[in-house]
Write a structure and sequence with these properties.
two-stranded parallel ribbon, single chain, 12 helices, 5 strands, SNF2_N, ATP binding
Amino acid sequence: MLCPPHLVEQWQGELESRFNLQAVALTAASAARIERDLPHGMGLFDHYPVAVVSLDYIKSERHRAHFLAIAPECVIVDEAHTCATGGQGRQLRFELLQRLSADANRHLILLTATPHSGDETAFYNLLSLLDARFATLQGRTSASDPLRLELARHFVQRRRKDIAEWQHDTGDGRGFPRRMKTEITYPLSGDWGLFFDAVQGYCRELAESHAQADTGGARLIWYATLALLRCVASSPAAAVKALTTRLDGTMAGDDLL
């Protein structure tokens, strides 16, 4: 099991309580002790068939090569989406997973509750770990595309409803809290109504200008404008913060130009 460092102890506990698997936790703090305790001539995964390994520890060049040489035939990666986005540290994580996935005989299971966060490149980087061909799906939207149908064979989704049903059937006592909500509608009027109409017009103009320019970022702009409208509808304080952030970004872009 590979996971971010803050989840190592949690995964160690979950494996023991749910699957009765005694896993060793391999982190920067425990690595030296674990290596000292290994019987002479025995490899890490021979002595500890189940291990929870910190991604931040194992991604470094100092440890990565050795891990790749001895990595087990089944590797599970939690929070896999954190390995597919930009940044130096995350790039090292992605390179590690790329090399693990290059072995066709290895079973690689990627776990994530956020496979797509609006970053198209990161999403298709993640898919490429399943099969390098899936990276070419970006921009291909046909539901009958043979490669998209192939991707569907690798995708397993567990919704909140599925987990709730499983908890009920197994007697697991940790059910989800019941959400009770009431929606109340009210008319926007006065200065607040004028302000909201102005922001809505700005968002519409922004989205239409990107669509006409055909810059390739039109879909992301729609997500951005929807997020802005939600902030504005939330509260005046949220509106000020969101619009200030937008203004700062616009001014920074003008400075670059």
